[in-house]
């Protein structure tokens, strides 16, 4: 059975139109195929994955670190969604270096922020494509990780060459009042 999501501040539930397998494929396409950074699904900790880390004892068990960043996009329209990507600075630097063909030691902060923003934009665009209906994708917002504790969210954790990557997705039907 697919996970369900609830609209924030609403007691009604809708079926989550996206499953973990969909997110796994989106991550595989972006990280492993396009960027050449293997992304292996990590088991969640007993408390579930969070921005503090994907697994209690696996790679990145200490979490993405204090220097981690989170990129967020929102989808609005017939469906509403929030897509978050949380990554360690080490992984963000690998993403930026590969994406922009720049040596790691030559990266500027702006390029790191842009790379993570582009990663969430790609995944958010794929989520938007799975949601049947008229929807718009926001520009990415990148900053320190935060948890708005939206109930019934889908969270997937990955090991990208021993660096944690967390994808969080919350979806609710935009037609509800």
Compact description:
The protein is α+β, with helices and mostly antiparallel strands.
Q: What's the CATH class, please?
A: Alpha Beta
Number of strands: 9
Overall form: globular
**What is the count of DSSP helices, taking H or I runs of 4+ residues?**
3
As residue ranges, the low-confidence spans are 1-12, 45-61
The name of the CATH superfamily reads CheC-like
Structural class: alpha+beta
The portion of residues assigned to helices is 25-40%
The largest β sheet comes out as: 7 strands, antiparallel
Mean pLDDT: 80
User: How far is the N terminus from the C terminus?
Assistant: 26 Å
Strand proportion: 25-35%
Helix and strand string, N-terminal first? EEHEEEHHEEEE
CATH architecture: 3-Layer(aba) Sandwich
Radius of gyration: 16 Å
How would you portray this structure in words?
The chain is an alpha+beta fold. It has one domain (4-43, 65-173): Chemotaxis protein chec (3-Layer(aba) Sandwich), CATH 3.40.1550. The protein has helices at residues 20-34, 89-100, 109-130, and strands at 4-6, 13-15, 40-41, 69-77, 79-87, 135-137, 141-143, 154-160, 163-173. The strands form 2 sheets. Strands 3, 4, 5, 6, 7, 8 and 9 form a 7-stranded antiparallel β-sheet that branches. A hairpin with a 1-residue loop joins strand 4 (69-77) and strand 5.
